[in-house]
Amino acid sequence: MFKIGHLKVEIFKIKNRCGYAAVCCSHLTEGKNQQEAYDRMVKALRRTTKRTK
Predict the structure, then answer these.
(1) Mind listing the pLDDT tens digit for each residue in 36-45?
(2) What SS3 state is found at 52?
(3) Among 25, 19, 21, 20, residue whose Cα is nearest residue 5
(4) Which of 2, 22, 28, 30 gives a 20 to 30 Å CA spacing to 16?
(5) Could you tell me the pTM of the whole model?
(6) Phi-psi category of 19—alpha, beta or left, where left has phi over 0 and alpha has psi -120 to 50?
(7) DSSP track, 1-53
(8) What is the CA radius of gyration of the chain?
């Protein structure tokens, strides 16, 4: 289990596809490996925090 700040990020292998997915705060991202899914989640959370300010 990874963390971004105080938020927990759950990363898991996608069964019917090749790759990994990350879920956090009603966001879902996919990547070819765990690190790519995590990096995309960081970017997605950064985008949504900018919108709420």
Answers:
(1) 999 999 999 9
(2) helix
(3) 25
(4) 2
(5) 0.85
(6) left
(7) -EEETTEEEEEEE-TTSSSEEEEETTEEEEESSHHHHHHHHHHHHHHHHHHH-
(8) 11
